[in-house]
Amino acid sequence: MTDYRIALIPGDGIGAEVLPPARAVLDRVGARHGVTFRYDEFDWSCTRYLAEGAMMPADGVDRLRHHDAILLGAVGWPGVPDHVSLWGLLIPIRRQFRQYVNLRPIRVFEGVPSPVLGAAPGMDFVVVRENVEGEYSEVGGRFNRGFPDEMAVQEAIFTRPGVTRILDYAFELAATRRGHVTSATKSNGIVHTMPFWDELVVEAGARHPAVEWRQEHIDALVAKVVLDPSRFDVIVGSNLFGDILSDLAAAVAGSIGIAPAGNIDPTREFPSMFEPVHGSAPDIAGQGVANPLGAIWSAAMMLDHLGHREAGDEVMAAVTGVLAGSPVRTRDLGGTASTDEFARAVLDAL
Ligand code: ATP
Ligand code: MG
Question: Which parts of the sequence belong to the Isopropylmalate dehydrogenase-like domain (predicted)?
Answer without folding.
Answer: 5-346
